[in-house]
Each structure stands twice: as structure tokens, then as C-alpha cells.
Write a structure and sequence with these properties.
single chain, 310 residues, alpha/beta, Rossmann fold, 7-stranded mixed β-sheet, 12 helices, 7 strands, globular, binds S-adenosylmethionine
């Protein structure tokens, strides 16, 4: 049984995957290989392994695991519509089995999988620690856990979190239309709709994440720092992403029909402009060290780790 919150989260994501063209989907699958190679992950290790893709979304990583020779991939998600879309995209891979389940209550025995992959999921659940302990429970000793979770800090997250209470009053369709008018591509639409509307969005310090792992029984922890998300690669790229929020909120001004919408869209636009302004000032400040500039503008970025269980 999934909770109302999980259903709401699942519904949001399920509706976002269909906007990807086949080409964009293929590129999203290829990112797995690019990132694994850039971070010296031994792809041959996957051959014959029993894998779990926990919170599989569009199934892009399940497909990537199958392509790299996983013996089986069990792909779970709370989103019924997302699972339907993922099954359609992955129909040629017989080693992948899709199933509706929550990472908070996985329907698998202890020590079931060699590799548990969970990218961008547990920070959207109502109980981060429980999700982490469930992922660990189903992992075999000597098995590996891959996690991607949102890191803390940075102006982009601050802008997103300042905009969330405003855009929620304008509604998803309104903002989706504004994204369309702003002319952003489909993968950007997904990225912003997810960030602006997902019910839970927990940002975690790397120190907080890694402090939890030894107690759960993890030994070595490899941090992936190569091939980051494009918008985290440098402060200028991050500024460009914040500017997209400004473009979306600017487009929303033209959509306002009622007085409340006019006030809310002005508030949203002024908010986004303020973050663009602060990011531009930081980039222009020659007294800032590269480290400080990164910390101010990007923050910690997404955390990606591979942890091996004792
Ligand atoms: C940002 S998407 C990531 C999808 C995929 N892992 C990827 O990287 O492409 C987050 C996914 O987590 C799923 N999700 C959210 N809460 C979940 C839960 N409690 N259990 C399982 N999946 C969940 C959502 O439905 C969504 O598909």
C-alpha cells in the first residue's frame, strides 16, 4: 500500500517522463555509462549481478544495468503511470521486471540483491533514514549501494525553495504552461516541475549522509565527483540554471488573468530576479576564492556514492 504522499509524488513524476523524446531517453540511458566510467566504477562487475533499481522512474538506469549485463534487474517505483511508461521504454529487455513498491517498505527478503541503485529518490520520501535502512536490508553482504541524493547549499536550491510556496498557489498547469512559453526543452521541464512541485525535497550535507553509513554496516565509501549534472559543473552553469527560473517566472507574468495571479507572478518573478542578481554579483566578485564562489553559488551539489556493505 502506498501513502497519499507517495501517490502524489508518483503522479507528479509519472507525468513527466512521457515528455522525453526517444532520442532524449537514449541519451539519459547513456549518462549511466558516462558517469560510471568517469568515476572509475568497474562496469564488468555488474555482469550476472542481481540488481534493484529503487525508484526507477522512466527505467533509464534499469535499461543501462541490463545493457551492462546485469543478471536481473528488479525495478520498483511508487508511480503506476511511471512504471507503465518505463515498461514501454524497456520492453526489449527481458531481464528487467517492473513492480510497484515503496522504498520505505520493500517487498523483498533480507540480503536479496548484489547491487542496489537508487538515484534521486530517498530525499523525496517522508522518512530518509527508513528508506536508507530498507535499501541496506535488501542488499547482500559485500553488495554495493549506489545513492544519489540532493546536497545542501547553493543559490539554485535557495531560489527553488523560495519559489515553491508561490508557484504552488499558481498551480502545476500554470507553471507548466509558463515553462512551455519560456521555450525550455523537455528535460528542463521535468527538472523544474520536479523541483518546484515535488511534495518532499530534503537537502542533505555530505557529512550527515556519510555519518549514517558505518552504523548501517557499510565499509568503504566511494564518492563520485566526475561528470556531475551540467548545471553543477561550474558557477556559470549554475547561474544559467537560475536564469531559467527567471525566464519561467517572466513567462508566467503574461499568463496571469486574475488579480491574485498578477500579484503572485510578480512575486515569483521578483524572487527569481533576486537570486540571479546575487549569483551575478558573486561571479563578478574578484575577491572571492574559487572554493568560496562554488560554495555560495553551487553549494555541495548532488551527492553520489557507492558504498560496500560488510
Ligand atoms: C527524480 S525521480 C528519479 C527516477 C530515476 N531513479 C532516475 O534517476 O531517472 C524520483 C523517482 O522516485 C520515485 N519515488 C518517490 N518516492 C518513492 C518511494 N517512496 N518509493 C519508490 N519510489 C519513489 C518517484 O515516483 C520518481 O519516479
Amino acid at each position: 500500500m502506498t501513502s497519499t504522499l507517495e501517490e502524489e509524488t508518483g503522479k507528479l513524476f509519472g507525468g513527466l517522463w512521457t515528455s522525453l523524446s526517444d532520442q532524449q531517453y537514449r541519451e539519459s540511458v547513456e549518462l549511466f555509462t558516462k558517469r560510471a566510467v568517469a568515476n572509475k566504477f568497474d562496469l564488468d562487475w555488474l555482469k550476472g549481478k542481481k540488481c534493484l533499481d529503487a525508484g526507477c522512474g522512466s527505467g533509464r538506469y534499469s535499461v543501462a544495468l541490463a545493457i551492462h549485463g546485469a543478471g536481473s534487474v528488479t525495478a520498483v517505483d511508487v508511480s503506476v503511470s511511471g512504471l507503465a511508461e518505463a515498461s514501454r521504454r524497456a520492453s526489449e529487455f527481458s531481464s528487467i521486471a517492473f513492480q510497484q513498491a515503496s522504498v520505505l517498505d520493500l517487498p523483498f527478503e533480507d540480503n536479496s540483491f548484489d547491487f542496489v541503485w537508487s538515484a534521486g529518490v530517498i530525499h523525496h520520501t517522508s522518512d530518509f533514514d527508513r528508506a536508507l535502512s530498507e535499501l541496506t536490508r535488501v542488499l547482500k553482504p559485500q553488495g554495493k549501494l549506489f545513492l544519489l541524493v540532493y546536497g545542501a547549499g547553493g543559490l539554485r536550491w535557495k531560489a527553488v525553495q523560495a519559489l515553491r510556496p508561490v508557484v504552488v498557489d499558481l498551480g502545476m498547469k500554470f507553471i507548466d504552461d509558463a515553462i512551455g512559453i519560456a521555450g525550455l526543452p523537455a528535460n528542463n521541464r521535468k527538472h523544474f516541475m520536479d523541483d518546484l512541485f515535488v511534495p518532499i525535497q530534503k537537502l542533505t550535507r555530505f557529512s550527515e549522509l556519510t555519518s549514517k553509513l558505518p552504523n548501517l554496516g557499510y565499509g568503504s565509501i566511494d564518492r563520485w565527483t566526475g561528470e556531475t549534472f551540467d548545471h553543477e559543473s561550474n558557477p556559470i552553469a549554475q547561474l544559467e540554471d537560475i536564469k531559467k527560473l527567471e525566464r519561467i517566472t517572466h513567462a508566467s507574468l503574461g499568463l496571469a488573468e486574475t488579480e491574485p495571479q498578477r500579484y503572485l507572478t510578480r512575486l515569483a518573478h521578483a524572487t527569481a530576479q533576486m537570486y540571479v542578481d546575487v549569483a551575478e554579483r558573486a561571479l563578478a566578485d574578484k575577491t572571492l576564492s574559487d572554493t568560496n564562489l562554488r560554495e555560495i553559488v553551487i553549494g555541495e551539489g548532488n551527492h553520489r556514492i557507492v558504498a560496500t556493505k560488510f
